[in-house]
């Protein structure tokens, strides 16, 4: 039985076509060679949109091929979807510390067709509260997916 993902790492650089995809591929190979890749969720991202949709730089691909490290990567845009205003403030504050941050930071509830902007924390609630936020997440995620598709 595969082990569960317990760790996550996001490698960041300006365009996500040179440094961060190389770091992601190197790290992926390391955890794969150690048979612990199931423990990790890996990705790379950019702080800009300059190279949106671009593959890794051909020189980086050649370097990785020379070292026998597979690399399949396309630069993607980053969407950070927060559950409430507190999360949104925290992420905006953190993004302000990153020069030229281009991540799209919004409330997930801003996509809710029923206009329920905040996804309340059900931690102290009951089963019905969890069902409520599940339904809201379904609506919001579907609407988000339709918009960014």
Automatic annotation (TrEMBL):
Xref: Pfam families: LMWPc
Phosphotyrosine protein phosphatase I domain mapped to chain residues: 7-147
Main location: cytoplasm
Keywords assigned by UniProt, alphabetized: Cytoplasm, Hydrolase, Protein phosphatase
InterPro entries hit by this protein: LMW_PTPase, Ptyr_pPase, Ptyr_pPase_sf, Tyr_Pase_low_mol_wt_mml, Tyr_phospatase_low_mol_wt
Transmembrane regions: none
Active site: 13 (nucleophile), 19, 121 (proton donor)
One GO MF term: acid phosphatase activity
Compartment annotation: Cytoplasm
Catalysed reaction, written as an equation: a phosphate monoester + H2O = an alcohol + phosphate; O-phospho-L-tyrosyl-[protein] + H2O = L-tyrosyl-[protein] + phosphate
SUPFAM superfamilies given in the database record: Phosphotyrosine protein phosphatases I
Gene3D superfamilies: 3.40.50.2300
Subunit description: Interacts with EPHA2; dephosphorylates EPHA2. Interacts with EPHB1. Interacts with the SH3 domain of SPTAN1.
Protein name: Low molecular weight phosphotyrosine protein phosphatase
Organism: Muntiacus reevesi
């Amino acid at each position: 039985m595969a082990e569960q993902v317990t760790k996550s790492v996001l490698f960041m650089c300006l365009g996500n076509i040179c440094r961060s995809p190389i770091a992601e591929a190197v790290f992926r190979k390391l955890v794969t060679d150690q048979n612990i890749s199931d423990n990790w969720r890996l990705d790379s991202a950019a702080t800009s949109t300059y190279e949106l949709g671009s593959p890794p730089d051909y020189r980086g691909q050649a370097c990785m091929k020379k070292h026998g490290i597979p690399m399949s990567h396309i630069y993607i845009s980053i969407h950070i979807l927060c559950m409430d205003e507190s999360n949104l403030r925290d992420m905006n504050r953190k993004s302000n510390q990153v020069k030229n941050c281009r991540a799209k930071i919004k409330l997930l509830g801003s996509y809710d067709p029923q206009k329920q902007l905040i996804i309340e924390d059900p931690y102290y609630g009951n089963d019905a509260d969890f069902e409520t936020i599940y339904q809201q997440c379904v609506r919001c995620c579907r609407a988000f997916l339709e918009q960014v598709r």
